[in-house]
Amino acid sequence: MRLANAEFLKSAFKEADWPRDDRAEIAFLGRSNVGKSSLINSLLGVHGLARTSSTPGRTRAVNFFLINQQFRFVDLPGYGYARAPKASKKEWSAAAEEYLAKRKQLVLSIHLVDSRHEPTKQDLQLHEWLAYHQKPHLIVATKSDKLSNNELRKNVNRIRGAFGNDRVVAYSAITGSGRQDLWKEIEKALSPQSHS
After folding, report:
1. What are the C-alpha distances in Å from 31 to residues 1, 22, 42, 67, 148?
2. Is residue 82 part of a domain?
3. Rounded mean pLDDT of 133-155?
4. Contact predicate 10/17, CB 8 Å
5. For the whole prediction, is pTM greater than 0.70?
């Protein structure tokens, strides 16, 4: 995919603020510190478009980005950050769940997990939810540059097993490894045939 431009559109805390047109959307979801913003920036080749933070759990709203004037990336609030106040945790997950449940424009959910660790209980619950509601989704194992090839292969197999043998793409926002594979999946999801 040739990237002509990518721009931050808006942060939305409730459904009334979501973009109204029918452009297709690709959502990114996962734990607070899994590297969502870094992955989005690396995928788009734009430094600092999605705000990264050294404090996990900063993304509280649903953030929309317009890509090539044709489709949108959607950065959903992270889950599972222990130090967030309970009330705001509930709010974030409500915002994310409402989006996932209701959004007709959503063509692919990219579920990020940390390649270095076992999937958490929340990772497994999210996967179960996506599968149960038959939402097209893809597992991406982030931070793959932190492991040796051997460890990465082992961990990806373990992650695949935990998620019922779904396809897993290993990705590094640092080296760009896995970028082409991920774009291929995104293009496939955006192609008109996949919605007929």
Report:
1. 27, 28, 18, 24, 23
2. yes
3. 96
4. yes
5. yes
